[in-house]
Amino acid sequence: MERLDKLLSSRTAFSRKEIKEAVKTGKISVNEKCIKDASVKVSENDRIYLNGEELFLPKHIYLMMNKPAGLVSATRDSKEKTVMDLIPKEYLRPGLFPAGRLDKDTEGFLLITDDGEFAHRILSPQKHISKSYELIAEHPILDDDILKLENEMELEDGTKLQKAKVNLLDDNDRTHIEIIICEGKYHQIKRMLAAINNSLISLKRTKMGNLPLDSDLKSGRCRILTPEEIQNIEGEKSISDFDQ
Length: 244
Description:
With 244 residues, the protein is of the alpha+beta class. Helix content is 20%, strand content 25%. Helix 1 (4-11) packs across helix 2. The longest helix has 9 residues, at 16-24.
């Protein structure tokens, strides 16, 4: 059991002061009973309403965002607009953050959560959770280029990369490819392309683990992940599995 104001302030965007004011004005009810005291004890099984609408109050929240280009993957930035500016207020809560960054100009699947332990698990290189990206390169990707990209590359600065997997997405256009990696080093794919004397025109993350980006999720929108979808992210598949 936990105080109502403490629970709501930890799982919503409302401050304890705002919650106490809402209680005073009769805007909050628990199990359809109007509450007059913000210190009343509630449990996770109680149904809590604000202005007649039930609040979504899970212990942790997991959002799939279809990130548009032009936004910084950060909780806040003094100069740039961030992905957090796109999250609807009903999903906001303390501790929410992007789990694994996408570069400013990169689009696609961005996971946003307040579950630090889960984020650590899926981002750890030791877990080998795959991330799939669709890209358009400036120049055609040749067979020799694919061999270099797929094997354990060493970048110009000495950074060593794990194996990757490359798939041609259009037999008639070798600039359009998919790259699957199991790590997320700084500007990794951009630097991989530079290592084969090529460059990116566009980049989009299309999948994390075994969970693809929702094709119905419009750019700039986000939605709650189901428990099954969360499991699919951790349903890891190593690069070596793709060769089988």
